[in-house]
UniProtKB/TrEMBL annotation, chain A:
Record keywords, A-Z: Membrane, Transmembrane, Transmembrane helix
Annotated GO MF terms: ABC-type transporter activity
Transmembrane segment boundaries: 12-34, 46-70, 91-114, 120-143, 155-176, 225-245
GO terms under cellular component: plasma membrane
This protein's record includes keyword Hydrolase: no
Keyword Membrane appears in the UniProt entry: yes
Listed name of the protein: Cu-processing system permease protein
Taxonomic source organism: Pontibacter ramchanderi
Automatic annotation (TrEMBL), chain B:
InterPro entries, A to Z: Beta_helix (IPR039448), Carb-bd_sugar_hydrolysis-dom (IPR006633), NosD_copper_fam (IPR026464), NosD_dom (IPR007742), Para_beta_helix_rpt-2 (IPR022441), PbH1 (IPR006626), Pectin_lyas_fold (IPR012334), Pectin_lyase_fold/virulence (IPR011050)
Keywords annotated in UniProt: Repeat, Signal, Ubl conjugation pathway
PANTHER family: F-BOX ONLY PROTEIN, F-BOX ONLY PROTEIN 10
The protein's name in its UniProt record: Nitrous oxidase accessory protein
Pathway(s) per entry: Protein modification; protein ubiquitination
NCBIfam families per the UniProt record, alphabetical: NosD_copper_fam, para_beta_helix
Domain of life (superkingdom): Bacteria
Chain ranges of the Carbohydrate-binding/sugar hydrolysis domain: 47-219
Signal sequence extent: 1-26
Length: 255, 441
């Protein structure tokens, strides 16, 4: 498996896209920290970047990579290697390389300009979101053999999680505003990895506002070590569930 | 002629006597373990008008000391009077009394008598200086008095695990005029400084923190000045009500966190000025209700949840030359009607431009966002803060306002943060050029 991951990684690095992605992140984060003035403002802008750009690039890159390495996978399948192994190696190769790019591109500037708990949460969230969206990309890719269709599904998934979902939540909250919605909102948050990541960072960034009204409730839940543990566990579920289901499909499917 | 010179000598003698009177007039009664007096109570009860009761260091287990003569009760080498939870420690029942340099401790909660470490009732010209008051129900309690100085005292209670009703106030003043509360540190009580119907007074350089309810609480107290105080981490911040003609300057309100906690709650405060204050890291910086003709200038709002909650019952308030930085929400309101005036403030969320380079943005800034209105209506939606969708809606609303109040805007927002100390010239220029039309309105 290690050997396989190495091959996948080598393939990705030779591709140069990952290098471009790293440079893009690095430039953007340094620029935001320099322009923003204060470290907090920089982190705030970076949060938007992490929540929009990282999922988009992760999902598109992973989907295209999966389709592009179809021939390689077919070759491997003809060898005495288990399919789950091939699949996991592909996944880890992509996810690890994208995470590494993120760590260099965003993690290093954060460490340099804003070394704080908020910064740490931002970086952890970014890495987890990368893993989640690569898993979702693989799910989209194994559903259909058609590359265009696969990328279409991947983009839709991104569109849903990054944009539409929050609109829907807003609509629900507004429509049922006469009812106590605290717990509901909490559950709705857990149903979207992007929201989950955002809330984890938010509770450290907008701490004052979060102490008012319902915010205090969330703060008491997410703020504790126990709550952070649960949030991270839910995030991991968001990695594991799409990954395992796509692996199942991949193992059973006729390539 | 001789008669006249005798008269003159007499007059001179009287004058000399008058000059040296503080020394000549009255005795000093010393209290210590080996002195003629071993109890403060005994010495105080025997003291005559103008005497000094000088108490040396040591612990005195006493309560119910009543001062009935105009004397000075002075502690040397930090004497401790321990009330042993058996009632009030010092009661002042005379004019012109000074209590200075004691540590007073242990007064139990007493719902019927409201026991305090020092109580003054219907007296004038009282000075309470440099005392330390620990673990008491009320700290310093004054009523129906006049001409009071409370200076450099430390009042420290224990409020952990206690309910609000079982706690008293650190400095409690009722129906008293001309009070100076200066340089005290109060903590761990219900209200740090409580003023009710107190007129023409000064509250200056005090630090009030970690009280269960309010750091400063006053009502019906017209014409007072509050300057250079710090109010930090109080249960509900600072709340002031039903008062006109207040001056609040150079105060710091910080770290007041909670759903019902305010840096400064203004309820029916009119004709007052609020200058040069700092509001930092509060859930709500200022909450305003039914308050009119207030003037806010040179205040800094930093990293609050809501910098200002401006209810529609407020009219004719002016906000000028304030800095709004790092707040989650700048202004929020509960309706559409707006009759307040914003000008020349710095907003860090302002995205306009300044083509003529005069330091003033060319497009107006609307400090109330659609999302702020939404959170006001549906509190759980606070969880969507910083979501891309919300930012998108906010920006759309800013371009074509339909829900946010149309009139609530800063038509001349500043491009750069105001440095209140160094920017005097710039600010003066702005005042001369721009504030004139407002005065005429």
């Amino acid at each position: 498996m290690n050997k396989l991951i190495k091959y996948v990684l080598y393939d990705i690095v030779r591709n140069k896209i990952i290098v471009a992605y790293t440079l893009f992140l690095l430039l953007l984060s340094i620029g935001l920290f320099q322009l923003g003035g204060s470290a907090d403002k920089g982190l705030l802008s970076l949060l938007n970047l992490v929540l929009l750009t990282v999922p988009l690039i992760s999902i598109v890159f992973a989907t295209t990579h999966f389709y592009n390495s179809y021939e390689f996978m077919e070759l491997l399948v003809s060898q005495p290697i288990r399919r789950s192994r091939i699949f996991m190696s592909e996944y880890l190769g992509v996810a690890l390389s994208l995470s590494a790019a993120f760590l260099v591109g965003v993690g290093a500037p954060v460490l340099f300009f804003a070394p704080s708990t908020t910064g740490l949460f931002l970086v952890v969230t970014g890495v987890l979101i990368t893993f989640v969206f690569v898993a979702l990309a693989f799910l989209a890719s194994v559903i259909t053999r058609d590359k265009a269709k696969g990328i279409g599904i991947a983009l839709l998934l991104w569109f849903y999680f990054a944009l539409i979902y929050d609109g829907l939540v807003l609509l629900i909250l507004y429509a049922f505003s006469d009812y106590p919605l605290e717990q509901t909102t909490l559950a709705l948050t857990a149903l979207n990895p992007v929201d989950l990541g955002r809330v984890m960072v938010l509770l450290h960034l907008d701490v004052s506002a979060m102490m008012g009204y319902t915010g205090a409730l969330y703060k008491s839940i997410f703020g504790s070590l126990w709550g952070i543990g649960i949030a991270l566990a839910v995030m991991l579920l968001w990695v594991i569930v799409p990954l395992l289901s796509s692996k199942r499909i991949f193992q059973k499917r006729d390539l | 002629m001789r008669n006249l010179s005798k008269y003159f000598v007499c007059l001179l003698g009287a004058f000399v006597l008058l000059l040296t009177s503080p020394v000549a007039f009255g005795d000093t009664l010393k209290v210590c373990a080996s002195c003629p007096y071993t109890s403060v109570k005994q010495a105080v009860s025997l003291a005559k008008a103008g005497d000094v009761v000088l108490v040396d260091g040591g612990v005195y287990q006493e309560a119910g000391i009543e001062i009935t003569q105009p004397i000075r009760l002075i502690g040397q080498n930090n004497p401790v009077i321990d009330g042993n939870n058996s009632g009030q420690i010092i009661t002042v029942s005379s004019d012109n009394v000074t209590v200075q340099g004691f540590t007073l401790q242990n007064v139990a909660t007493s719902y019927t008598r409201d026991d305090a470490a020092i109580r003054v009732r219907q007296q004038n010209n009282i000075r309470i200086l440099s005392n330390t008051i620990l673990k008491t129900y009320y700290g310093i309690y004054l009523q129906y008095s006049e001409g009071i100085v409370i200076k450099d005292n430390v009042v420290k209670g224990e409020n952990v695990g206690k309910t609000e009703s079982s706690l008293g106030n650190a400095i409690h003043i009722y129906k008293t005029d001309d009070v100076q509360i200066i340089g005290n540190e109060v903590q761990g009580h219900r209200d740090g400084i409580y003023l009710e119907t107190v007129k023409n007074s000064t509250v200056e350089r005090n630090v009030s923190h970690q009280n269960s309810r309010y750091g400063l609480h006053f009502m019906f107290s017209d014409g007072n000045a509050y300057t250079h105080n710090t109010f930090r981490r109080n249960g509900a911040g600072v709340a002031v009500m039903y008062t006109t003609n207040v001056r609040m300057e150079h105060n710091t309100f910080e770290d007041n966190w909670g759903a019902a906690s305010y840096g400064l709650l203004l309820k029916e405060i009119n004709n007052s000025v609020i200058y040069n204050n700092v509001f930092r890291r509060n859930t709500t910086g200022i909450h305003m209700e039914s308050s009119s003709r207030l003037d806010f200038r040179h205040n800094d709002f930093e990293r609050n949840g809501w910098a200002i909650k401006l209810m529609t019952t407020c009219i004719d308030d002016t906000f000028r030359l304030n800095n709004f930085t790092g707040n989650s929400f700048d202004i929020s309101t509960n309706g559409n009607a707006q009759h307040n005036y914003f000008e020349h403030n710095y907003w860090d969320k302002y995205t306009g431009y300044d083509l003529d380079k005069d330091g003033i943005g060319d497009v107006p800034y609307r400090p109330v966002s659609l999302y702020a209105m939404l959170v006001e209506r549906v509190p759980p939606s606070v969880m969507l803060m910083r979501s891309f969708m919300v930012d998108l809606l906010d920006n759309m609303e800013r371009v074509l306002p339909s829900i946010i109040p149309q009139n609530l805007m800063d038509e001349r927002p500043l491009m750069k943060k105001i440095d209140h100390d160094n920017n005097r010239e710039f600010v003066q220029n702005l005042r001369q050029t721009a504030s004139a039309p407002w005065r005429e309105r």
